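Contributing new complexes? Match this layout with copper (II) ion.
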Amino acid sequence: MKITKFIGMILLCLIGLNSFAQLTKTSFEVSGKCLECKKRIENSLKVLGVTSADWNVNSQILSVSYDPKAIKLNKLQKLISNAGHDTPKFRADQDVYNSLPACCKYERMTYSKSKNEGSANDMPGMPDMSGHSGHH
Ligand SMILES: [Cu+2]
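Output block (do not edit by hand):
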């Protein structure tokens, strides 16, 4: 594959550039299934500011090196979700997900839309004192 050589060359160049830019490394979960997904995910981050993106098909963890002055973490995740893959912050559009090849139909990430911290029924003093169950 010629393209891998090409990408390799680009990566080598970018490693050279690393000494100039202040890079941030981060990793987060990206939903995907196969090597096609890996290509899609990594290609979605071939943008200015991102120096490397590597998605692990087994752990579903994406490792990214990027220049925080050029691109924000939210933007990274948005780009990936635009490509059809769920990220912790952005859910891929259902239509985009539907258009993925059959092999790529990963399990959707679950998002807790609104965390109702305070429960509606506030019960004062829950009688749950562990180790105090002795009746006399
Ligand atoms: Cu796939």
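Reviewers usually confirm one structural detail per submission. For this one: The first strand starts at residue 24 and ends at 29.
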